[in-house]
Amino acid sequence: MKFSKQLLRDAARAVLERRGERVSLKHGPGIVPGARLIASVDGAQPSRTVSVRTSQDRQVGLMRNEKGNWRTIAKVDEVLVAASSEDGTAVEVLSFKPQVLADAFDDALGKRPNLKRDHRLPLFIPLDDKRSRRAGEIITGLKRKCSWQETFAPNEQMLRRNPEKLSRLIADVRDEFARLSGVDASRVIVAFNIQP
Q1: Please, what is the end-to-end C-alpha distance for the chain in angstroms?
Q2: Could you tell me if 108 and 132 are in contact, meaning their C-beta atoms sit under 8 angstroms apart?
Q3: Thinking of the domain 5-154, which architecture would CATH place it in?
């Protein structure tokens, strides 16, 4: 089964919560709901910023900025990759230290000199070990470098709802309210109630 990107992000958050962490969304311009999280153990300080990357094909992609640095990961304390499991029945959530990912992507970039010239091209690395079609060598997957991993089986309610549409609606309402009120969107909280 191919899980939606929003369901993968929701699974990553659920795994952190299952591990005893207090988790909230980090909002900001251009941030997809659930792509950045603020997490702390029992609400204790300091909290940490977590980037959630999704992978429907068990590959992780990163892009560089104009200076050649990997986007996003330098600004967070942890990177979670939420991917469909190999058999497609669950979500696999893997935790990475940002520097571990940066080093892995630097090594991969060194083997692809054509990508070095254009920072706008993404670089993808598989999660699982894989044989290169060109050279026949084994490409070591990122999964071996993760700090921890957990499997999450989405429940029926998660599978039925359309989280991407709902998240987009909430983000749109928040952004429009902030614009009309003249405040930063990160200061706006949107809550809907359903009357019985």
Answers
A1: 34
A2: no
A3: 3-Layer(aba) Sandwich (3.40)
